[in-house]
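Memo to structure team: turn this sequence into structure tokens by end of day. - J.P.
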Amino acid sequence: MTPEEREGKLLDWLKQSETIKCVWGRSDCSAWPAKWVEFLTGKPVPLPQYSSRDEADMMIANAGSLEVLWGRALQGIAEPIGTDPGLCKAGDVGILNTKRYGQTGVIIASPRLAYIKAEGPGGGVIRPRNMVQIWRV
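Reply from structure team:
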């Protein structure tokens, strides 16, 4: 897939996601990027099952971090590339530390922009700084 095709798929994905409300375990800040990875690669991303923020927080705590959960789920599907957003390609995914939400999953749109699935419909644009880990999809 060319970079242009990949960017086109990402723009379509983001546009389709504008009206999707956050549902824990289906369209939250981890499930939403995981579904993007599945769409792009055709491979299922085996995130643990949860249906509330409390359940998600408990799974994260039991694993040690959101990065550990994502690392397990993305093993063999996406490659960890570090924390430098300058190394990203549009469509990569990652975890970033935010003041408002703590660690949250993102889809990287460019080295300067990432999209998060906020707790309402659609997503939000944020600078991808304070990255915990980025995975090349």
